[in-house]
Design brief:
single chain; alpha/beta; D-Maltodextrin-Binding Protein, domain 2; 2 domains; 53% helix; binds beta-D-galactopyranose
């Protein structure tokens, strides 16, 4: 009985403290994101835990759908109805589009205090600041899209030794895998996934300058070139190695096919590594990571950034805590180890990352030095979404046999020009 009275009293006291301290004890952030696959959710938990340690409650707003297509639709309706989340996972040009609408919060004071200017790669700062140079987003990682992930056992069985260097070697390997009775390519037939494979194929076919001209600068000559036709022909070639159920498959289910030994390779960004790690597989022993054949030396990047929306004063403190947590060096290491990406800071050591992560970090730095670092079109860093979606439509229609390669090249030139 005495105990009960005491605890009732303690409850009252806590209530009074809460009242006296304003909203402090109830700080929360609502975060909209599309990290619903196993490896992604595990990475996000690192952030949730860190904030909860600081007394900030995490209100989760997940919207499934790779690369955030659906999440961006939900965001639009939230903002339209005057109910923006505290923070939103976002990519490249979408950040700039929202900045231009004047609805984002300014993080410049925090950024100055924590010296973000000195440590965030310049390629990301371009997207994380608005046209007035104010910080509006906190980048949590750098991903790269031109990777190939392979089941090591299958590679060993068909005698793949070392890197698959170029397109011809890739085709020879895929043929051997087919003969051995496996599905060569684990493929998810969704427009953003088609485009992820396509951009690697374009890079491999035309080289880095061609990639930039075609899928960053949208030069009509490059878009309408014979090289582009070859890239489309190569997409048709890859189609010969996918299973009949590829259509609509989620990317992480395709990764699971490689993990389970049903398929040999997946062409996907390094978020796929998060799934391998989550299944307790070791790089080099159980799975192989290498650049998409013929793209070695070039890095197509994207970066997940937490964009902060203007919120009421009562939510501001928690929002700043979130931004600061995202940028902290210890968090960047802990998060990226799980996510498959690399830190969005140039001053953190990579030695805690696995072999693929260390390779990715070195290659990112080298590509940056040698100007071989380009924005991924499929993941929002090549063009605003109108142009991006125009490319998606053509690539997907062609992959599904609606266009010949000649028709696809023409359609690409027209669709891009109409969307610009
Ligand atoms: C990318 C994003 C990654 C990963 C992937 C699959 O656009 O940058 O973090 O989530 O989509 O959804």
């Amino acid at each position: 009985m005495g105990k009960r009275i005491l605890s009732a009293f303690a409850g009252l006291a806590a209530g009074a403290a809460l009242f006296a301290g304003g909203a402090h004890a109830e700080e929360s952030v609502e975060v909209l994101h599309w990290w619903t696959a196993g490896g992604e959710a595990a990475a996000l938990n690192v952030l949730k835990d860190q904030l909860e340690e600081q007394g900030v409650t995490w209100q989760d707003m997940p919207v499934a759908g790779g690369s955030g297509v659906q999440a961006m639709t939900v965001l639009r309706s939230r903002v339209t109805s005057g109910n923006a989340p505290t923070a939103v996972q976002m990519l490249g040009y979408d950040i700039q589009d929202w900045a231009n609408e004047g609805v984002l919060a300014d993080l410049s004071d925090l950024a100055a205090k924590e010296k973000w200017d000195d440590v965030v790669p310049k390629a990301l700062q371009r997207f994380a600041k608005n046209s007035d140079g104010q910080w509006i987003a906190a980048p949590v990682n750098v991903h790269s899209t031109n990777w190939m992930w392979a089941n090591k056992k299958i590679f060993d069985e068909v005698g793949v030794e070392g890197e698959v260097k170029d397109w011809d070697e890739l085709i020879a390997v895929l043929d051997k895998i087919k003969e051995a009775g496996y599905t060569p390519i684990a493929y998810g037939g969704q427009p953003w996934q088609d485009a992820t494979v396509f951009e690697a194929v374009v890079l491999s076919t035309g080289g880095p300058e061609f990639y930039k001209k075609a899928l960053n600068d949208f030069d009509p000559e490059a878009l309408g070139s014979d090289t582009m036709k070859t890239a489309f022909d190569r997409m048709s070639k890859l189609h010969e190695y996918v299973d009949p159920n590829f259509s609509g498959r989620d990317w992480n289910l395709a990764t699971a096919m490689v993990i389970n030994g049903k398929a040999a390779v997946q062409f996907m960004g390094d978020w796929a590594k998060g799934e391998f790690l989550r299944a307790d597989l070791k790089p080099g022993e159980d799975f192989v990571c290498q650049r998409f054949p013929g793209t070695q030396g070039t890095v197509l990047f994207n970066s997940d950034q937490f964009v902060m929306f203007q919120v009421g004063e009562d939510k501001r403190d928690a929002q700043i805590k979130l931004a600061s947590a995202v940028m902290s060096p210890t968090f960047q290491i802990a998060f990226n180890k799980v996510k498959g990406s690399v830190p969005a800071r140039t001053d953190v050591p990579g030695d805690e990352l696995d072999a693929c992560g260390q390779k990715g970090m070195k290659e990112l730095a080298a590509a940056n030095e040698s100007n071989q670092l380009f924005g991924s079109l499929a993941h929002g860093y090549g063009a605003p979404s109108a142009v991006k979606n125009a490319v998606f439509d053509v690539v997907t229609a062609h992959f599904n046999g609606e266009y010949t390669s000649d028709e696809a090249v023409k359609a690409l030139v027209e669709a891009v020009s109409a969307a610009q």
